[in-house]
Amino acid sequence: MDSDIIKSVLPEGPVFEMILVTADASGKPNAAPVGVRREGDALILELAEDTTSAANLLATGHANLYLVRDPLVFAKAAFNVSSRSVFSNERFEGITGVCGASAAISTRLLRSHTHEREDELGTTAFLHVVLEPTQARLTGVPMPHSRSYSAAIEAIIHTTRAQIARERKLEGAFHDFSRRTRREIEKARSMGTDRGTEESLGLCLQRLDNAEGGEDDEE
User: Fold this and answer.
1) Which of these, 189, 163, 190, 187, lies nearest to 177 by C-alpha position?
2) Does the structure show a pLDDT above 50 at 217?
3) What is the pLDDT of residue 215?
4) CA–CA separation, 191 vs 198, rounded Å?
């Protein structure tokens, strides 16, 4: 494994937004945005305990992490939109890849433990995960990090939290996260957006509208 790639992609300390891809026993992939932090040679992240990502990782002990600079891929992974728009035809260490990734890291599960966290959404059980990188490769040309990109990622995060608040019937939290989403969308648009970023922002608004109307978001 080329540890220099991992160190260049993930400097130690900060949390980086990446796409986690896991697969079930049949090989069916699942993609989800996650925050990843490197501590020495280990990669640390947390997953909601009741997610497909957590179940797959515990079942197989393997996952891939992808560095992606396209907000649309993050949005479609977060909102479980058509897998054809997220997954590539290439595989890395036996797991389906992600479209538009500039770096890929294959990992194995070292250890995990569950804990509960209290916030605006109430009590949520999380799986704290420690991963060991096993392979790394650069898969594309890294893109610059724009302010519009950062705002779009924040909009996606707030939208997913708004959806959870609606599911839990937390009206105050739902409206708060909805307002945060719309502020980040305005911020992203004020700094200029490309087509993919604009489409990702449109998906956020669509999810908020569906949640407000009580509609089913499944694609």
Assistant:
1) 163
2) no
3) 56
4) 12
> Which pLDDT tens digit goes with each residue over 28-51?
999 999 999 999 999 999 999 999
**Residues belonging to the chain:** 219
| End position of a domain, from candidates 138, 156, 179 | 138
What span, in angstroms and rounded, lies between the C-alpha atoms of 158 and 73? Answer: 16
**Spatial separation of the C-alpha atoms in residues 149 and 146, rounded to whole Å:** 5
Q: What is the DSSP string of 139-200?
A: -SPPPP--HHHHHHHHHHHHHHHHHHHHHTT-HHHHHHHHHHHHHHHHHHHHT---HHHHHH
How many angstroms separate the Cα of 102 from the Cα of each of 66, 98, 136? 7, 10, 11
What tokens were used for 63? 């996952």
pLDDT in tens, 81-106: 866 789 998 999 999 999 989 999 99
Distances, alpha carbon 204 to alpha carbons 76, 84, 197, 218, in Å: 10, 19, 11, 14
103 and 19 in a common domain? yes
Instruction: State how far the Cα of 152 lies from the Cα of 8, in Å rounded to an integer.
Output: 24
For residues 135 and 22, give the distance between their C-alpha atoms in angstroms, rounded to a whole number. Answer: 15
Q: Helix (H, G, I), strand (E, B), or coil: what is residue 129?
A: strand
- Residue 160's domain comprises 147-211
CA angle centred on 80, ends 79 and 83, rounded to 5°: 135
